Amino acid sequence: MGGRAGAAEPLLLPELSGGHSGGASVSGAVFNLSTSIIGAGIMSIPAAMRVLGVAPALVLIAAVAFLSDVSVEFMLRYTGWAPSGPPSYAGIMGDAFGRAGAAALNVFVAFTTAGTLVVYLIIIGDVLSGSAGAGEEHAGVLGELFGARWWTGREFVILVTVVAVLLPLVLLRRVDSLRYTSAVSILLAALFMLITMGITVYTIFSGTAKMPRMLPDFSRLSSPFELFTAVPVIVLAFTFHFNVHPIRAELSKASDMKSAVRISLVLCSAIYAAVGFFGFLFFGDDTMPDVLANFDRSSGTSGVPQALNDAARLSYALHLVLVFPLLHYSLRVNVDELLFPASRPLATDTRRFVALTAALIAGLYALAIAIPSIWTLFQYTGSTFAVCISLIFPGAIVLRDVHGIAKRKDKAMAATMIILAVITSSIAIASNIMSSIGGDAKVASYHVL
Fold first, then answer.
1. Which neighbouring-strand residues pair with 138?
2. What is the mean pLDDT of residues 388-411?
3. What is the pLDDT of residues 7-32, one digit of tens each?
4. PANTHER family per the record (predicted)?
5. What CA–CA distance (Å, rounded) separates 11 from 346?
6. Residue 173, phi-psi category: left (phi > 0), alpha (psi -120 to 50), beta (remainder)
7. Could you read off the pLDDT of 135-184 as tens digits, one per residue?
8. Helix H segments across 20-53?
9. Contact call for residues 371 and 118 (beta carbons, < 8 A)
10. What is the rounded CA–CA span in Å between residue 12 and residue 95?
């Protein structure tokens, strides 16, 4: 194994090239996992806390983190049992349900990651160039500093970000090469949390803060079932399962993956809880699904310095820039497996690697420019694709148990996961449909990514 050419520089996506490339540390895995987790949902946690109240939201965050740990443990337990092929999420799905199972996973991951990446580009554009919608307009940071110019326009700013910043990162050939950017990304998420806390403390001492509700306010809900609509938001915020195997494959010891996952889940749960609590404490029932819009709206009010609002927006935008490459890797793997199932591994085909990367980046940019807001799309995808990836598919693998290694308690937990996911997602989807028909924007806003 050590005598192969290129062994000293293991390629990206080791799950496609087979074996463990080794060398990555537990801390590097924690940073990459945490980046995958936090990038998916920190923005929506305060809005979910507005729906549920503080106490139920904290319980839900802890419960979903626990179920995520259980589902990843299920995935890792069945890793390596497949009769052929390197370890991957698609591999264990294919082992349990055949080619159709692997293809279904690839499609679900592709939709989830592509949609999320487009959202990231839209948010980056909103922060830097501003946005308009629903009769409101807010200026971006560049617009506030330099005014409306051609080079502060949305199309140009996103294009420069994609070409000059994101493209070099997604062309890196090792997942572990992102350990430093992932570390910075986690620090930026922590900075966003600290800024939110600082603004909240400022408003507390100035006497403008509102005491957050600890329990749901049923008078603001058209139905108690609306409480369930916050569940897919939290589940989506913990959907990182498609990055488990690429990160595991680069660990020096595969057995360290369980510890890395648990450390990451504890870290991210703490950040989610802090951002959700302090964001809700500051904005109260005015908390919007896109909490960055609140920071813009609060400019010049409550005595909050403009610099703090800009720092909060910029730290989050930079966080998304550094999260982008990890999710793009997963998108590229799944699209490649769907389009070129019989081709040689992507990591060994430079031409296909570069061409597919460029095509995906161009497509994501085009969608981010063409679609001003895709919140409506995510009202449904957050309740379907992400829930399947994080809960339903791992549970189904255990219930299928083609190798007979699952215990009775494992199957009971797997069945519970699936039942909870199906019930809560069904209620959320029904609420989305009802809100779309009735034009109830308040209900619809609860499901934003």
1. 131
2. 89
3. 333 344 444 344 444 556 777 788 78
4. AMINO ACID TRANSPORTER (PTHR22950), AMINO ACID TRANSPORTER AVT6C (PTHR22950:SF323)
5. 9
6. alpha
7. 455 566 776 677 667 777 778 888 998 998 888 888 876 655 666 776 77
8. 26-38, 45-52
9. yes
10. 23
pLDDT tier at 379 (50, 70, 90 boundaries)? low
| Alpha-helical regions (H) of 79-174 | 89-129, 141-146, 154-160, 167-170
The alpha carbon of 415 is separated from its chain's Cα centroid by a whole number of angstroms, namely: 25
Maximum pairwise Cα distance, the chain: 69
Domain boundaries, the chain: 21-447
Helix (H, G, I), strand (E, B) or coil at 340: coil
Q: Please state, in angstroms and rounded to a whole number, the distance separating the CA atoms of residues 26 and 21.
A: 14
pTM check: above 0.70 = yes
Taking residue 402's Cβ as centre, other Cβ atoms within 10 Å add up to 14
pLDDT of 118 reads 87
Q: What is the mean pLDDT of the chain?
A: 76
- What the block records as the tokens of 218 is 């049923």
Give the C-alpha separation, 271 to 252, whole Å.
28
Kindly calculate the radius of gyration of the chain based on its CA atoms and give it in whole angstroms.
Answer: 21
Q: Is pLDDT at 124 greater than 80 in this prediction?
A: yes
Find where tokens 């809880």 sit: 273
Q: Hey, what are 424's tokens?
A: 């809560």
Contact 247, 29 (CB under 8 A): yes
Cα separation, 378 vs 367, whole angstroms? 14
Q: Which two tokens stand for residue 104?
A: 């279904």
Sign of the CA dihedral running 109, 381, 128, 147? positive
Residues contacting residue 48 through CB under 8 Å, at least 6 positions apart: 57, 60, 230, 233, 234, 276, 446
How many other CB atoms are found less than 10 A from the CB of residue 182? 27
Gap between the Cα atoms of 374 and 115, Å rounded:
8
Q: Tell me how far apart the alpha carbons of residues 403 and 413 are, in angstroms, rounded to a whole number.
A: 18
Distance of CA 57 to the CA centre of its chain: 18
For 131, the 3-state DSSP assignment is strand
Residue 314's CB is within 10 A of a number of other CB atoms, namely 17
Do 399 and 415 contact (CB within 8 A), yes or no? Answer: yes
C-alpha distances out from residue 134 to 3, 131, 316, Å: 61, 10, 23
User: In the CATH scheme, what is the code of domain 21-447?
Assistant: 1.20.1740.10
pLDDT in tens, 268-298: 899 888 888 887 877 777 776 666 766 665 4
> What's residue 433's pLDDT?
73
